[in-house]
Amino acid sequence: MRSEKDKMLAGELYRAEGPEIEADMARAAAWMDRFNATVAHSAADCHALLSELFAEVGQGTRIRPPFHCDYGSNIRLGAGVFLNFGCVILDVVAVTIGDRTQVGPKVQILTADHPRDPETRRTGLEFGRPVRIGADVWIGGGAIILPGITVGDGALIGAGAVVTRDVPAGATVAGNPARIIGKA
């Protein structure tokens, strides 16, 4: 029998409970307590802290606290990635952010999703869909990236945009829902 964590990581319906999931969430919560305790991390300290929790952290990557995530272990950040204050990443499945991508304050990157059918939702089941953000992307403050989205290299996402569809490489999107308004 597969564990709830195995189902979660496979993007299947799962329950966010059980010893593996609860231990991983507790580990991430303890890490966030330490990471968010100060904004005065040196570059080396920041990289070391991120490397403790995340699946991958490229050289020169920085996150300004406070930062929140579900697990951290499903997050891969390329080299030179920057996340500003107050970012949230719900990483029940993979979140990949490419080299030199800049993320504004209070951006939300969400992989957690829920069944559309109310009967199934009532059972407490959920699932995840991975988010992939390319290299050299700029995401404006307060933007929300919904589950299953891919953002191409060099794209720009306007402040406050709600990204409900994939964003092609080099596109500029804005609005709710985000629409292409030009090329980067």
Automatic annotation (TrEMBL):
CDD domains reported for this sequence: LbH_MAT_GAT
InterPro entries linked: Hexapep, Hexapep_transf_CS, Hexapeptide_acetyltransf, Mac_dom, Trimer_LpxA-like_sf
Organism encoding this protein: Thioclava nitratireducens
Descriptive protein name: Maltose acetyltransferase
UniProt cross-references to SUPFAM superfamilies, sorted A to Z: Trimeric LpxA-like enzymes
Family to which the UniProt record says this protein belongs: Belongs to the transferase hexapeptide repeat family.
SMART domains found in the cross-reference section: Mac
Keyword tags: Acyltransferase, Repeat, Transferase
Span of domain Maltose/galactoside acetyltransferase: 5-59
Highest taxon listed in the record's lineage: Bacteria
